[in-house]
C-alpha cells in the first residue's frame, strides 16, 4: 500500500512542477492537459485548455501527483508538509535555499537535537516543506 500526496493548484501547476524540477531534482514522468481529454470526457472546461489535468512527478523514489483546478484563488495547503530527507548538509542547504526562493522560511536550517540539520518553509506556491538530515 502507498499513500501519495496529490496537490491541487489554481492554474500554476506547471510552473510549480518546473520549479520543483529545478529546486529538488524532481522528474515529471507524466503530464496530461485538459485539452488532451476527449471532448465528451469532461464537463465543459473552456478556460482550462492547456492547464494540467494530471501530473505524476518523482522526487527521489517518491511519487507526487498534481493538477490545476479544485482550488479557486490561492491554494490552501494547510495541515501537512512535504518532507525531504537529504543525504548531506550541502544537499539540504541547496534544496532549502532553492525551495525558499520567493517563499517564506518558517524555521531556518539549523542543527537540532534530532537532526544534523533541519528547517521548514513555505514555497512560493504555498506548499509547506521540511528539509532534514537526520542523526
Report on this model:
With 135 residues, this protein is α/β, with parallel strands linked by helices. The protein has 2 domains: 1-73, Signal recognition particle alu RNA binding heterodimer, srp9/1 (2-Layer Sandwich), CATH 3.30.720.100; 77-135, Signal recognition particle alu RNA binding heterodimer, srp9/1 (2-Layer Sandwich), CATH 3.30.720. 18% of the residues lie in helices and 39% in strands. The protein has 2 helices and 8 strands. The protein has helices spanning 13-24, 89-100, and strands at 6-9, 27-33, 52-59, 62-68, 82-85, 104-110, 115-122, 128-134. The strands form 2 sheets. A 4-stranded mixed beta sheet has the order 1-4-3-2, with helices on one face. Strands 5-8-7-6 form a 4-stranded mixed beta sheet, covered by helices on one side. Strand 3 and strand 4 form a beta hairpin. The chain is elongated and about 55 Å long. The two termini are 28 Å apart. 26% of the residues are buried. The mean pLDDT is 90.
Strand content: 35-45%
| Principal-axis shape | elongated
> So what's the CATH class of the largest domain?
Alpha Beta
What class, by secondary structure content? alpha/beta
Biggest sheet: strand arrangement: 1-4-3-2
Order of helices and strands: EHEEEEHEEE
Helix content: 10-25%
Q: How would a crystallographer describe the biggest sheet? A: 4 strands, mixed
Q: What is the oligomeric state here?
A: single chain
Mean pLDDT: 90
Number of domains: 2
Gyration radius, rounded: 16 Å
Low-confidence stretches: none
The name CATH uses for the topology of the largest domain is Signal recognition particle alu RNA binding heterodimer, srp9/1
Helical stretch tally: 2
CATH architecture of the largest domain: 2-Layer Sandwich
Question: Could you tell me how far the N terminus lies from the C terminus, measured between alpha carbons in angstroms?
Answer: 28 Å
Amino acid at each position: 500500500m502507498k499513500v501519495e500526496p496529490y496537490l491541487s493548484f489554481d492554474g500554476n501547476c506547471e510552473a510549480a512542477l518546473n520549479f520543483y524540477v529545478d529546486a529538488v531534482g524532481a522528474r515529471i514522468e507524466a503530464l496530461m492537459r485538459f485539452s488532451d481529454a476527449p471532448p465528451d470526457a469532461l464537463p465543459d472546461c473552456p478556460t482550462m485548455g492547456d492547464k494540467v489535468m494530471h501530473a505524476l512527478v518523482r522526487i527521489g523514489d517518491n511519487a507526487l501527483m498534481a493538477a490545476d483546478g479544485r482550488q479557486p484563488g490561492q491554494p490552501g495547503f494547510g495541515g501537512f508538509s512535504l518532507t525531504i530527507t537529504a543525504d548531506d548538509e550541502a544537499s539540504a542547504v541547496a534544496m532549502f535555499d532553492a525551495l525558499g526562493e520567493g517563499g517564506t522560511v518558517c524555521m531556518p536550517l539549523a542543527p537540532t537535537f534530532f537532526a544534523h540539520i533541519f528547517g521548514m518553509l513555505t514555497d512560493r506556491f504555498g506548499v509547506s516543506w521540511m528539509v532534514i538530515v537526520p542523526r
